[in-house]
Structure formats: structure tokens, C-alpha cells
Amino acid sequence: MPGARFAELAVTAIEPNSKQPRHVFDEEALDELKTSIQEVGFLQPIVVREIGDGRYELVMGERRWRAAQAVGRETIPAIIRETRDDAMLRDALLENIHRANLNPLEEAAAYQQLLEEFGATHEELAKRIGRSRPQISNTIRLLNLPAPVQRRVAAGVLSAGHARALLGLDDGEAQEKLALRIVAEGLSVRATEELVSLAIADGPAKKAAPARRPRVHAPALNDLAERLSDRFDTRVKVDIGRNKGKITIEFATVDDLERIVGMIGVDEEGAGGSDD
Q1: 187 — phi, psi (to 5°)?
Q2: Which of the residue ranges 79-88, 200-209, 230-239 would you say has the lowest mean pLDDT?
Q3: Is 62 a catalytic residue?
Q4: Among 15, 47, 237, 268, which is most buried by a count of CB atoms within 10 Å?
Q5: Number of folded domains in the chain?
Q6: Which residues contact 257 (CB under 8 A, 6 or more apart)?
């Protein structure tokens, strides 16, 4: 593979980069990362370069390396950089993702790493690996799940479809409870989606029972939500009550949000000249 090779390196064979601009690391974030490594394992490799005598210098991933030391890991997955050309290294990683048999969480972490550390774009990822933008955005969102749920996805106990459905719940505890129920009862993805929809519908009503408003269930709403999802290349939910309604547009990254806002702006300015 031009530009990079993958290896499992001894943690003690790696040295921090003396030019690392970050010298203070958020302890809370580091604790979360340590917990994730203990429960799920390493989802993203660090990036290093050889400096001779079996030693390596960190290029990217010092937090992961520090967390690995803190939890007593002896080895860590690494990309050994063989070029200074960022574009060549990014291409090598894209090629590896395209060919590798990754579980959904490894795939999500790889996408996130390419977006944040190697300057790849959603369009580039979609084109190079034969996926749609919504698939990439929804896969990246799996990294927002609680660690116990991520562990089940990584182990194959929960499918990516189940995991995406769980993201419809805002509360981590609720996601964990439903994940346990999926495993215990062998629920299908469709059944999970229905349970999530019911939980979303019942949640606000339970909090304000005295002022409960009947919800309107219009068959056309699902069709409208699907059309909007296709339009914005992301998940869109449409909710309507007696006096008002709500449209929720989900996004994975700030870049994704800016794309959606730009599309809304274009629609407003070019309402008279739609191509649809």
C-alpha cells in the first residue's frame, strides 16, 4: 500500500511528538477514552513515523496513546507513515477501508478519522467507497452511542441497523435499556424502529400529562419525512400536534450542518427555479 502500512506496535516503542501543539489534555475526556478502550477496544489507529532502532514518533493520536498507557495496554494499532504527502496517505487509508472487512464501529471511526485528521470530505468518501452521503453520516453517528451499546455492535450482537434505530433516542440510558431488550427478545430492526417511535411519541406526553394534547397521525407525514430525507441526504423526522408541528433534521458533523443550511438557503433563493 503506497503511503502507509498498518501494524500492531508496542506502546513503549512510541515517543510523543515534540512539536505537538497540545500540552494540556482534558482529563474527563481522557477518562472517557480509557473507558471506551477497556470496553470496546481501539476503534481508530494512531499515526506514527519511524525514527530508527525500532522506535516510532507520534504524528496523530496522542490522546489514544496516553489512554492506552493508562489502562495498561501493551500494544496499540498504528498506521506507520511512509510518506510526507498527506494526500497520498489519505488515499492509502481510503483504499484500506474499501478493502477491509470492518465492523460498523470500526467503519464509523475510520470515516471520522479521515474527515478530521486527513481532510477528506463526505463527497470523496461516498465516491471512493461506493456509499451514499446519508450512509456515511449515519455510520459516523454510531460513535455517539454509549460504550456498552458500542461494545455489542462491535461484537456483532447488535446490527448496524439496530444501532442506527437506537440513535433516535436522545437518552443514553434509554438506548442501553432498549439494546438489552433487543438482545433478550431477538427484536428485528423494524420492531426496534417502532419501539423508538413510540418512546419519542410518549416521552413529552408523560412529562406534561395534565396538558396532554392528542397527536395527529397522518399517513402522509411518513412520506413527507422520506422526501425530505432524500432531499437533504440525512434523516428527517416530521411531528405534528393539534396546534403546531416540528421538523427535526439530523446531521453528523459541522460540515454536514453547513451543507444542509446551504441547501435550505438555495431553496429559498431559487424557489422559482427548482429542478425537481
Answers
A1: -70, 145
A2: 200-209
A3: yes
A4: 47
A5: 4
A6: 251
- Position 128 in a domain: yes
Q: Are 134 and 234 in contact (CB under 8 A)?
A: yes
Domain that holds residue 69: 1-82
Residue 204 lies in a domain: yes
| Calpha distance 223→234 (Å, rounded) | 15
For 76, residues 6+ apart whose C-beta sits below 8 A from its C-beta are 8, 9, 11, 14, 42, 45, 46, 64, 65, 68
pLDDT, tens digit, 9 for 90 and up, residues 252-270: 777 778 788 888 874 444 4
Block residue for cell numbers 492506552: 68
CA distance 44 to 173: 25
Handedness of CA 127, 130, 133, 139 (dihedral sign): negative
Length of the chain: 276
CA quadruple 158, 250, 127, 224: dihedral, nearest 10: 100
Q: How far is CA 22 from CA 16, 37, 60, 61, in A?
A: 11, 21, 11, 11
Instruction: Judge residue 1's burial from the number of C-beta atoms within 10 Å of its C-beta, 0-12 exposed, 13-18 middle, 19 or more buried.
Output: middle
CA distance 45 to 264: 37
Catalytic residue among 62, 95, 124, 193: 62
**Mean per-residue pLDDT, 35-50:** 84
